[in-house]
Amino acid sequence: MSHWHPASPALWQGRDDRAESPNALRLFQTITLSAAFSPENYREQIALLGFACDEGVKRNQGRTGAAGAPDALRKALANLASHQGHDRLVDLGNIVAQAPDLEGAQQALRHAVQRCQQAEMRTFVLGGGHETAFAHGAGVLDAFPRLTVGIVNLDAHLDLRHADRATSGTPFRQLAQLCDVQQREFHYACFGVNRAANTQALWDEAQRLGVTVVEDLHCQNAQAQMAQFISSVDVIYLTIDLDVLPVWEMPAVSAPAALGVPLSTLLRLIEPLCRCGKLQAVDMVEFNPRFDDDGNAARVAARLGWQIAHWWH
Prior knowledge:
Blueprint: E1 4-5, H1 27-30, E2 32-33, E3 46-52, H2 55-59, H3 69-78, E4 89-96, H4 102-118, E5 122-127, H5 132-143, E6 149-154, H6 171-181, E7 187-193, H7 200-208, E8 212-215, H8 223-231, E9 235-241, H9 263-275, E10 279-285, H10 296-311
Parallel strand pairs: 2-4, 3-4, 3-5, 5-10, 6-7, 6-9, 7-8, 9-10
Antiparallel strand pairs: 1-4
Helix pairs in contact: 3-10, 4-5, 5-6, 8-9, 9-10
């Protein structure tokens, strides 16, 4: 498959506590590493995929470095304790973008996601910039042509930009256009939006497209809005731009948030998504290891990913 590379087993290392007890296990000991892209062999498991891509952030005039995120996050996940749900993770490797061909890499990820979903796997993608979302979302839409797909974005930005070509700021406008082509409704909710980081033009576009928008200031009491959105769709794709978190929790992104939504608040919004039975796809994007000198931001992102896999029913 084009652009695909297997994940290195060297990324999955950690402390071995099995002398204490046979079930004293960590993720590196329970994850399955696949030497080939073969989702058909792993029905009802969770496909862990990396999208090693910087091109969308570069085009959007952001701080590059997110291409290194998938492997950095694997290392951060590896030594965490393995509990319920974590043994379903199957590492199916990375889709690697070769600059400047963002569109080719997006098409490769789109096809990989569709293939995983049609093989009855769920997909957990580690970006990459938020250009990841067009490819991931398109793959989900392709896999469920007769179902209502809802997109939940936890993000400081609406990412509905008009541009001559795809960037990390255009994915949801692209998905709206794809829904038009596929003659289906566009169901998009964005929680954590920073009004100070989105122009009036972007707010107008969100209104035109019927987007559910919840600002960062109001996420503390947004459970009812999340529940309403969950009930309105058949299948859910959750995308998490890590810049939704406050800068003191997540400095290692292209655009750190001065206010943001704390991890504890974010998890209260995520838990019902994971437990509702409709969640088919998740990604975490925009982590930039170049700006994570002490590794603390990777730990925050890894705990978020760990919690999602643990709750995901």
